[in-house]
Amino acid sequence: MEKKYAIAANLRNFMSQVGRQSLYHYYLWHFKGKEPPLKLFILSHMRSGSSLLTHILNTNPEVLGFGETFTQYSSEKDFYQLMAEVHFTLRQFRVSETYLLDKILHDRIHGHGLINNSDILKSDKTFVIFLIREPESSLASMLKLMQNLNQEKALDYYTGRLLSLENYAKLIDKKERCFLLTYDQLCHQTESVLKRLQEFLNVQHAFSEQYQILRTTGRKYVGDPSSKIQAGKIMKNNKNADISILPNVIEKATKAFNQCYASLSDYCLMIDSE
């Protein structure tokens, strides 16, 4: 009897996967000939508040996305895959958004680069929000989430990713298409941030700090798996994870953060810029 139940369960899972793949390929076929909307990238690092920012951006009907898609961008054709992935995941068939959103927190995944063609970032149809978070909270949050990660590896990732963000901004070299934001600003200067984001993206609808829970909210490998993201609003009292970071690690990370912030400030619009 148990064997029968196991076979039936496996069959249901198989049929579910077949159905999912069929529906996804239908979305891919449906969007193949359509011009993708403007592209909006959140370029950031892990534990930066990127899931929170994604949800806030999604409070505006002119923006559509759900988190990391791990799409590998080599040409404009890859945006058809992104469009299909986003619409399929959120079960939206009609393209009504102005911006199609993806967030990228890594240079490479499983040995494959995620932005493999600089022309994608240079395109006038691509807009970027650079989001960074100060080192102590970032590193402590990484270590709490990934318990197999040590402080040196976390530092290597953090400093390396900040350097990559600097290089991306220099490559784009168009201030009107780049916006610099810190996690602290997002949480504690929220009203100013939301107003400036609306101006930066030139959208009619305002952004809100109250957001809707998505189908993907809290899903592992898509965004923040912690319970905090389920609050449906910005949590103002953000406590650091109870993890002590070594002084030499903090020193190196702080130097990288300050360098990145200073460099991005030269290439990006900010909440206090004209």
CATH superfamily of the largest domain: P-loop containing nucleotide triphosphate hydrolases
The termini sit apart by: 71 Å
CATH architecture of the largest domain: 3-Layer(aba) Sandwich
- The total number of structural domains is 2
Features:
274 residues; alpha/beta; Rossmann fold; 2 domains; 5-stranded parallel beta sheet; two-stranded antiparallel ribbon; 46% helix; 11% strand; globular
Short description:
The protein is an alpha/beta fold and 274 residues long. 46% of the residues lie in helices and 11% in strands.
What report would you give on this structure?
- The structure is a single chain.
- The protein contains nine helices and seven strands, in the order H-E-H-E-H-E-E-E-H-E-H-H-E-H-H-H.
- The termini are far apart.
- Helix 6 (151-172) runs parallel beside helix 9 (247-267).
- The protein has two domains: 1-31; 37-267, P-loop containing nucleotide triphosphate hydrolases (Rossmann fold, 3-Layer(aba) Sandwich).
- The chain is an alpha/beta fold and 274 residues long.
Secondary structure blueprint with pairings:
Elements lengths: L1 H30 L6 E6 L6 H8 L5 E2 L13 H12 L9 E6 L3 E2 L2 E2 L4 H5 L3 E7 L2 H11 L5 H22 L5 E5 H6 L1 H12 L45 H21 L7
Parallel strand pairs: 1-3, 1-6, 2-3, 6-7
Antiparallel strand pairs: 4-5
